[in-house]
């Protein structure tokens, strides 16, 4: 919960700082045009990656394979599109990184490793099943 609160506060601060620094270098109108350009290009690439992910998912379903990577990839593409629509350079960088298939695979591998470690540390309860037969009338 603290991570979410910190990011809600930190991300706008980073974005404002980047707006000021980039605006000083290239000008206010160019900064605004760059923000609009990155949003349009990012949403276009998110759409293309989403279509490719859906096709790959259907291919896996036809081959009777679970489309685990495609489900994760689709979710990360949706998050990337949201980050790209939000005006700002920091969120655009995060969005574009989520659109790159290589970085999505790295993220998926780290999440899968973390989940495997959590499953191994789970508590195991040993029990004995007793089959009791009730009297039949």
Description:
The protein is built from 5 helices and no strands. By secondary structure, the protein is mainly α. It has one domain (11-114). Helix 2 (28-62) packs antiparallel against helix 3. It starts with a helix and ends in a 17-residue tail after the last helix.
In short:
With 137 residues, the protein is mostly helical. Helices cover 80% and strands 0% of the residues.
Count of individual helical segments: 5
Distance between the termini: 58 Å
Shape label: elongated
Strand content: under 5%
Helix percentage: over 70%
Tally of individual domains: 1
What is the element string, with H for helices and E for strands? HHHHH
- Runs with pLDDT <50, length 5+? none
- Tell how many strands the DSSP assignment holds: 0
Features of the shown structure:
mainly alpha; single chain; 80% helix; 137 residues; 5 helices
Blueprint of the fold:
Elements: H1 2-26, H2 28-62, H3 68-85, H4 89-99, H5 101-120
Helix pairs in contact: 1-2, 2-3, 2-4, 3-4, 3-5
């Amino acid at each position: 919960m603290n991570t979410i609160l910190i990011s809600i506060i930190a991300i706008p601060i980073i974005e404002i700082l980047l707006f000021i620094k980039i605006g000083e270098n290239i000008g206010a109108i160019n900064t605004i045009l760059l923000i609009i350009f990155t949003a349009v290009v990012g949403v276009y690439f998110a759409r293309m990656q989403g279509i490719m992910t859906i096709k790959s998912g259907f291919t896996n379903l036809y081959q009777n394979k679970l489309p685990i990577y495609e489900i994760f990839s689709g979710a990360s593409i949706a998050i990337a599109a949201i980050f790209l629509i939000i005006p700002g350079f920091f969120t655009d960088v995060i969005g574009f990184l989520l659109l790159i298939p290589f970085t999505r695979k790295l993220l998926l591998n780290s999440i899968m490793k973390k989940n495997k470690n959590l499953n191994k540390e789970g508590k195991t309860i040993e029990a004995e099943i007793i089959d009791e037969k009730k009297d039949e009338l």
